[in-house]
Amino acid sequence: IPPRRDLTGSDPRAVLQEVYGYDDFRGDQAAIVEQVIGGGDAVVLMPTGGGKSVTYQVPALVRPGTGLVVSPLIALMHDQVDALVANGVRAAYLNSTQSIDERRMVERLYLGGELDLLYVAPERLGNGQTLAFLQRGSLSVIAIDEAHCVSQWGHDFRPDYLALGGLADAFPDVPRMALTATATRETHREITERLRLPDAKHFVASFDRPNIQYRIDPKVDPRRQLLAFIRSFPGAAGIVYALSRKSVEQIAEYLAGQGVDALPYHAGLPPEVRAANQSRFLRDDGVVIVATIAFGMGIDKPDVRFVAHVDLPKSVEGYYQETGRAGRDGEPSVVWMAYGLGDVVQQRRMIDQSPGDRAFKTRLGRHLDAMLALCETVGCRRQNLLAYFGEESEPCGNCDTCLTPPETWDGLIPAQKLLSTIVRLQRERGQAYSAGQLIDILRGASTDRIRQLGHDTLATFGIGADLSEQDWRSVIRQLLARGLLVARGEYGTLALTDASSGVLRGETPVPLRRDVLGRGGSAVRKSS
Ligand code: ADP
Ligand code: ZN
């Protein structure tokens, strides 16, 4: 660690210029820095790319003592500390990946007052030993990053965060900050309460990212849709998110085979491969990283031009955070998602089979419902997204539904046909089926399975031949999203819900969104 000029007591703006080379603070940064340098607590809700880092780093440099940064992402501490050291900041971290010798050296530097910033993982602060050690030195500020992890109802709960409220007792005179890039009103309240920040000043920036264009398309042939999307950004860097490691690898391989400079990233890859792929993405131009959500938290690559989701994210918070990695430089960027019936069925199944208790499953179900509502909205996507975070806004003019307002059509009759087919199969034969077989019955398909099961003798056989298979999938997907139908068990067999009876009686209107492929550009036809 290089020695450098002591900045204690300096003017914060001068520190910003000298250390970071920025001309001035932006947004709420100056006010936050002032609050904390004055010794007050702060809760900071600011979207990704908003510039949270300097709001705790500058006070750490200006106030006497070491700034403690609690960050859950051990993998990133190393990079963050390296970047700080490169700017002449005396920064270090303590975590489980270090040798005893390394740890001792960092501890010595801290106790000697020779560190500006010290990063630690939350699990270390749960034990009294670490707290006692930290009390032997002197802290200037405590910053709790990714503070939404304290929320049990949030999408990223980490039990270690619950102990962080204890920092209030251990360091009553040190200003504390909680920072996050994602918080609903409920999560905001939990952060304030659980991290014990009753007197904190709250800084809530708008979560709007106006340079990001939102697009969600029905999933038809996801790989080809993805390829067409990526090809509309020649030479640009982007991130593709998929849910499983296996699909990450398959998609990366497919894209590479099509001439895209694509690399996989997931927790199951050897650490050296992961590190190499990440650094190629950061350093070279035009690399597309295909990743599970393990990738991206805290990655500071300003010129990511697009983010694609080929699987439905589990929550709106997750979607917002992942899409937020696009366009941190403020330049126009596009985020796109392919979403289909299979995603709904799969995620309901994952929730049903998850080991948690009833409350846990209810929470996951609520997250999924909000995500589905965003997918199926006929209104502005951004308005829907911001409303989820408690922010009111006007239609944005820069999302797929604003640019090409979706048509709606009356889906009551098809919905009744489908629901009555399900009822008949259940009543007359004690059977339940998943979407594929039901569509074959409705469309009057002549398959071996239809004949073997005698489904061609059902009264509803062939009554839905006026709609294509794709239309039926769209109907079923939207009914599932609205809770007018439910998918059960390992095969996603479809069943009625309490709300379905209103549809059968013709009392519940069923306006449906007409699916259009590739709105705003890449039209794709199904190949098989
Ligand atoms: P967050 O942690 O909120 O996602 P960062 O702290 O990583 O955001 O900052 C996002 C980007 O904005 C970074 O590239 C950073 O260098 C830049 N940045 C932050 N504050 C300023 C500023 N006052 N002037 C210019 N650039 C800034
Ligand atoms: Zn819009």
TrEMBL record:
Catalytic activity: Couples ATP hydrolysis with the unwinding of duplex DNA by translocating in the 3'-5' direction
Signal peptide: none
PROSITE patterns linked: HELICASE_ATP_BIND_1 (PS51192), HELICASE_CTER (PS51194), HRDC (PS50967)
Record domain Helicase ATP-binding: where: 33-201
Catalytic activity, EC: 5.6.2.4
Parts forming coiled coils: none
Essential cofactor(s): Mg(2+); Zn(2+)
CDD domains reported for this sequence: DEXHc_RecQ, SF2_C_RecQ
A molecular function (GO) term: DNA helicase activity
The keyword Transferase is annotated on this UniProt entry: no
Domain of life: Bacteria
Keywords, ordered alphabetically: ATP-binding, DNA damage, DNA recombination, DNA repair, DNA-binding, Helicase, Hydrolase, Isomerase, Metal-binding, Nucleotide-binding, Zinc
Helicase C-terminal domain boundaries: 222-372
Matching NCBIfam families: recQ, recQ_fam
Similarity-based family: Belongs to the helicase family. RecQ subfamily.
Name recorded for this polypeptide: DNA helicase RecQ
Organism this protein belongs to: Microbacterium candidum
Name of the gene: recQ
